[in-house]
Amino acid sequence: MKKSRFTTEQIIAILGEGQAGANVAELCRRHGISEQTYYRWKAKYGGMEISEAQRLKDLEAENRKLKQIVADQALDLHALKAVLSKKF
């Protein structure tokens, strides 16, 4: 996955400017983002504080690790079943 140019704190600051009444088109031009990006960020981070966004990022990382563990265990289980199903 591509790494964002903006940190979570920067994204929340940009969204805060938009909530303060700044023109969205001007805000996007100033920060070098598209309006689609702004509204995608707004849908994901809208109304969050920096601490909440950091917690979301940590939970997403933990979830990614857990999914990897489950996938590894499923492969191990499949291999064991294949070995046990063979007749010697």
TrEMBL record:
A Gene Ontology biological process term = DNA transposition
Q: Which InterPro entries match?
A: Homeodomain-like_sf, Transposase_8, Transposase_8_domain, WH-like_DNA-bd_sf
- Which Pfam families does the protein's record reference? HTH_Tnp_1 (PF01527)
Q: Which GO molecular function annotations are given, in alphabetical order? A: DNA binding; transposase activity
* Name the record gives this protein: Transposase IS3/IS911 family protein
The source organism is: Gloeobacter kilaueensis (strain ATCC BAA-2537 / CCAP 1431/1 / ULC 316 / JS1)
